[in-house]
Amino acid sequence: MYPQIFSAAKEVDQAFLIILGFSVFILVVVTVVMLWFLWRYNHRRNPVAADIRGNLWAEIIWTVLPTIIVLGLFWTGWSSFKAMRTIPEGAMEVLVEGRMWSWKFTYANGKTSPELVAPLDTPVRLTLSSRDVIHSFYIPAMRVKWDVVPGMETSVWIQSDSLGEYDIFCAEYCGLKHADMITKLKVVEADEFEAWLTGTPEEVAGESRGLALMEEFGCFDCHAMDGTDDVAPPLNDMAGKERLLILPDGAKRTLRADDKYLRASIMDPGAELVDGFDDEMPPYSDELSEEDLGAIVSFLLGKDEGGKDLSKAGHPGRQMAEVEGCLKCHSTDGTTTGRAPTWKGLYGAEVKVYRFSKKETVIADEAYLRQSIRYSSTWVVEGYVDSMPLYDDLNEETLEGLISFIKSLGGEH
Ligand code: CUA
């Protein structure tokens, strides 16, 4: 059988073997008895058939025995199912988001990853959600398979007793690239996990930030980088490449792939299609920040090193904000998430706030930012509820990094 690394699911294999063993046993018994009857009651050996009218004992046996067998089989299945559905208290939390056609894992500190990294022998609660259609989150080595349904959050848990890499699949047909909705579970030692979780991804700040983002968003599930056609056009050597486009009115025109074209086709890919390809790509307008988009476009145009957008995206304070989870609620591009005000243009701006339920207007200077980050309840910005966690244990270095990052996002006029 496939390797099994989840101790709570050991009984699943046991239940499977018991049920299989019983089924085979009954198949053999029934077949043997049937053959024996064929031989023994053949009309030459037994010309006159017996006329049997009822047998109480036979009826009791064939009612009670199968009932006991079926209940026993149910019990083996039920007890293993229960062990897998009882999530231990204090399990590490990881959010799992499925989309066509990739997985994204978000850790409690806001770190996101396209692969699931988990420490050895530690229970992990996975909260599953979908951005689009029904997927099914499947780790064969864990015997865990659970549907991921849009508009619904469900949870499973895992715990690995062996190091190594294991497959994660989508087990529910979800469209063209369903079979490519594959990623890895990486089980590592606890200290290695801690280093990975808290480590600032240095390469992400540098030249390959655009590349890392594209991997995270699953772009390469459909776009090849070696010039071949997949379900979507290849993306290598984009700079200056000419593309034959089909416009919404059906007309065709040829266009050079530049910054403007790439931005438009990422944000609203359906508007103008490359000749020969279908309108398959989801729009990314609601999930890519201006900086992320800039990093991807710079990468595609091959000017990642020293590109202007990148130096800004690589602001050390941005990494702190990502690690602290600030950017889960605060945008950096002027859009609002509904949970918290954007950071763009915040520094030095006038902010309407409530202080002890009294309305006032304050200037978002350094003192304001400092206080608001550490003790967000001091002022509550108009239009928002006081939902930000306390950051009073933030160290001075991080606090300054965050403030300097907010300053870099403009404002002060
Ligand atoms: Cu997602 Cu199949």
Key descriptive features of the protein:
413 residues; alpha+beta; Immunoglobulin-like; Cytochrome Bc1 Complex, Chain D, domain 2; 4 domains; five-stranded mixed sheet; 34% helix; binds dinuclear copper ion
Written account of the structure:
This protein has eleven helices and 16 strands. It is an alpha+beta fold. The chain has four domains: 7-85, no CATH class; 92-198, Cupredoxins -  blue copper proteins (Immunoglobulin-like); 209-312, Cytochrome Bc1 Complex, Chain D, domain 2 (Orthogonal Bundle); 316-408, Cytochrome c-like domain (Cytochrome Bc1 Complex, Chain D, domain 2, Orthogonal Bundle), CATH 1.10.760. Strands 3-2-1-5-8 form a five-stranded mixed beta sheet, with no helix packed on it. It has a five-stranded mixed beta sheet with strand order 4-10-9-6-7, with helices on one face. Strand 14 (350-355) and strand 15 (358-363) form a beta hairpin. The longest helix has 31 residues, at 10-40. The model is unreliable at 304-312 (pLDDT under 50).
